[in-house]
């Protein structure tokens, strides 16, 4: 069923609220990991294709990125064409010999076909610059993205660009004015290790007798550059198409091409820096990557600033008011930008409610240093897309399979942490988690979804994506499929090597009361509120160590209890997990007095004594991710003891009422709770492994 623009917009607002807290709030590596997951791959493939035909164009793209950032910030203004009334930056004298604009245009055309109105031209240029460096032998680095495109490009502004004839003092002042240090300047100058230069950029050193230029090298250059010529020479004569540190060795020999290069050894301090970079290739590569990332953040436009051009050559001012909605939202990566963007879009659309929704974005999720959103944005950019496609295929065949995957993720995280141990098969000497009683109702098809996604990922990015991350992505995509809010999944988990059925005793049974649930969730670093939230998922799985099914609900403690409980809004449960509430409940009452009598009568019909039938955990909407689970609790229609117990204290009952009346708040809190739960006991770095096959340890 198609969703209205306002509903989609609303969902994105809540999802992006989860990205509110970042060390660098404006730009973020993996920015397009969900909105356009193949973005960086498309750029990389096109750059590689062009460089096979014209190996020198990569140096132009690198220089183009520098020139773009130094003039009006990294906003893609260098890409705009001149008009009758204005000469643009690209037509200024200093940029007249730049090539590669057509490369950016071709990439943009392909990205518009794949993700219309999402990826900025400024980001394309930053990606292309990085990929050019890698092509020439440089080390890959993550490019923080989320830049917006500028609307102004004036040739006269290029006067700020550093001339090759500047001395050390002038260069240093210029770089500092852009927020870059002298060390950054020396490191970024290393880009001159690739590419060519025109004679007129350094001929003053040849025919005016520069004593800092090696005489033999000067004589050679004169043969290449006779007076009045404008020929080209390689800036690094020995390895002109290799991104190495030979440039610095050349400077130490007084064989630098430009005054602005040779001046780097004019003081003891800068000469020491040059020597260090000349001595260590690895040091140069690391420092260059850090410096270019820093440069790439100069005066960026983000949030609702600027635009996302449809054509990098043209100002996109005449676009229809709504066409860039997703781009606007995707660009607002921190709370202040989001508020501005949503307010603008809400009033533009006449949706007052949407403007109010921003007020809910007051509880941002912190980012764990071990996991990061967009972890595979360069190493396997299609990872999340592949998982999503495999899941969608499975859901067409079995609409309930997503509830199993959501529950499976819960069970995985509560036992030994989120390490994919639930996916391992039993062996002759060991019974694995998946064969423990609480997990025996998982459909084999759910495990096959993970297997199929892993098989495809191994073909595309062998040994890169962990099974634990695949499961986390599949759980998120299941939530979205059922109508929940999309949320970015921090990734980088490694796979565990141990899986024991006995460890599933850590799973909270559906018979637990509030105190027991809260204690268990707190032991996992989750609050009572999270417990309440996760329970609303309606996916019975987490709560019972006995017979749960794909249509059951999940966890409970306070923050967790409220949020976690929300997972029970989808899925089914087997009768034994709640039959104690229907028959022989106590000496005083045959049926649990906290259970609605009419609902109890209905359940007895579906669950006669000793039956193992299934019932929907949320009868009104068993396959919709909504808040009816909480409304059921208010009417004493919670299926499990662990559900109805959420009404046993004023604080937890208050949270249940909030969620029952506010679906946006619930979905926002649920997403936040899932992200937090997904960090329990994770293995990262060199811990664990990346399994080749999710069912077997390597």
Automatic annotation (TrEMBL):
Residues 1-23 form the signal peptide. Ca(2+) 1 binds at residues 68, 71, 73, 75, 77, 89. Ca(2+) 2 binds at residues 193, 236, 239, 244. It comes from the Eukaryota. Pfam families: peroxidase. PROSITE patterns: PEROXIDASE_1, PEROXIDASE_2, PEROXIDASE_4. Keywords: Calcium, Disulfide bond, Glycoprotein, Heme, Hydrogen peroxide, Iron, Metal-binding, Oxidoreductase, Peroxidase, Pyrrolidone carboxylic acid, Signal. The record marks 63 as: Transition state stabilizer. It catalyses: 2 a phenolic donor + H2O2 = 2 a phenolic radical donor + 2 H2O. Its cofactor is heme b; Ca(2+). The active site is at 67 (proton acceptor). Substrate binds at residue 162. GO terms for molecular function: heme binding; lactoperoxidase activity; metal ion binding. GO terms for biological process: hydrogen peroxide catabolic process; response to oxidative stress. Disulfide bonds join 36-115, 69-74, 121-312, 199-225. Residues 594-621 are annotated as: Disordered. Belongs to the peroxidase family. Ascorbate peroxidase subfamily. This is Peroxidase 1. It comes from Musa troglodytarum (fe'i banana). The lineage of its organism: Eukaryota, Viridiplantae, Streptophyta, Embryophyta, Tracheophyta.
